[in-house]
Write a structure and sequence with these properties.
The chain is mostly helical and 385 residues long. The protein contains 16 helices and 5 strands.
């Protein structure tokens, strides 16, 4: 492939896309590993650690490119890549975070390097497959994509959280690469070229569709199992004297959450007891187990706290302007069941939330968090657009 061929640029876009999607956890580790350092050391730790990780990643991927020339290895790699792609779509484990690590710059650099080495197997295989044996293409793609991930890690995390479709498209891309990888293995390539050339586009397409279908099925089953295992939330009837005096507002920083806050403020005017108690809640989803293996404890707690504070800031300001005091909650877990649980524990008589949050898909009747809250809540839930 030459620089002027369409195949070169398509493969380059695949390498960049694969790296961006698969480096989300690596970006979290980089950000958290340097988080507890003094400000003047943070940039140096990220630069040294990421620079060394880039060199290591390029070396490993070049080795993988050569290994994939051997018979059967592409078939094995394709199967592994399909499994990795499906796992992208399965909800993360909600296990406890690990203890805090050392906060020295040397320790931060070591953490970044070790994490990148352990967590880069999926990147290495996918990128090596997308490069199709072209070392120049490989180095150019990595040189563009890895610094992009490193220096835009926070933006990357926000975008993936706000637009989950990015993860789905990334998983489909991995399925496409895996399908193409399988039919170009030396063992089957000649037969495919001679007898079934259509497989060069049909196999990648089938891989992409299969990954999304199987991944979504596993995701639905996992969420159903968690819902079945969660303790039931008993209904809390509002008495004549209490009415809706204790209200929980779920906020995620979206415009719908601000509209929900305005509705609560307006609701106060229609109650017999205007001194309502308002509980604000923002639920942060847990980081993946891979991230927790390398960076845990205080840095992760601070990371979740900052993100919750950002999400609650707009509605907090609205209540302050209305002269309404609030109590804040910032738990980590699966949002829907967690909102319902905290509402029950605090004795709230009403949950108010937006129909769609930052991460909801346009066109859906309700966002996934709103739907899950409705399924688990034991009290009335008011949905606000």
């Amino acid at each position: 492939m030459s620089f002027t061929s369409p195949e070169f640029w398509i493969a380059l876009m695949q390498i960049i896309g694969v790296n961006i999607v698969l480096s989300g956890d690596n970006a979290v580790v980089i950000a958290l590993a340097a988080r507890s350092l003094p400000a003047d050391q943070q940039k140096r730790a990220v630069a040294w650690g990421s620079g060394a990780a880039v060199v290591m990643r390029i070396a490993l991927t070049i080795v993988a490119v050569e290994l994939l020339r051997l018979p059967y290895l592409k078939l094995v790699g394709a199967a592994l890549l399909l499994w990795i792609a499906v796992q992208l779509l399965v909800p993360e484990d909600e296990g406890d975070e690990t203890e805090a690590r050392s906060s020295s710059m040397a320790s931060a650099i070591k953490t970044i390097l070790l994490a990148d080495l352990v967590m880069s197997l999926d990147n290495v295989i996918a990128v090596a497959a997308a490069a199709k044996g072209n070392t120049v293409l490989l180095i150019v793609g990595l040189a563009i994509s890895i610094p992009l991930v490193v220096f835009a890690s926070r933006l990357l995390l926000v975008l993936m959280d706000r637009f989950p479709i990015i993860i789905t498209l990334g998983a489909a891309l991995l399925g496409w690469v895996a399908g193409d990888m399988a039919v170009t293995d030396p063992v089957v390539k000649d037969w495919v070229d001679l007898n079934a050339p259509f497989l060069h586009w049909a196999a990648p397409l089938a891989g992409a569709i299969a990954v999304v279908a199987v991944g979504k099925w596993f995701a639905a089953r996992t969420l159903a199992q968690r819902a079945a295992e969660a303790p039931p939330v008993e209904a809390v009837p509002a008495s004549v004297t209490d009415e809706f005096r204790r209200v929980m507002l779920a906020a995620d920083g979206s415009p719908a959450a601000e509209n929900a806050a305005r509705r609560v403020i307006a609701l106060r005017q229609h109650l017999r007891h205007p001194d309502i108690q308002v509980h604000l809640i923002n639920v942060q989803r847990p980081l993946s187990g891979e991230v927790s293996n390398f960076v845990g404890g205080k840095p992760v707690e601070e990371y979740h706290r900052e993100r919750s504070n950002e999400a609650l800031a707009p509605v907090r300001a609205l209540f302050a302007a209305a002269g309404i005091s609030v109590q804040e909650h910032a738990p980590v877990g699966n949002p829907g069941p967690t909102i319902a649980r905290v509402a029950h524990e605090t004795g709230c008589h009403l949950i108010v939330m937006g129909t769609h949050g930052l991460g909801s898909r346009a066109g859906a009747v309700l966002g996934s968090v709103a739907q899950s809250t409705l399924e688990h809540a034991g009290v009335p839930v008011l949905m606000v657009k």
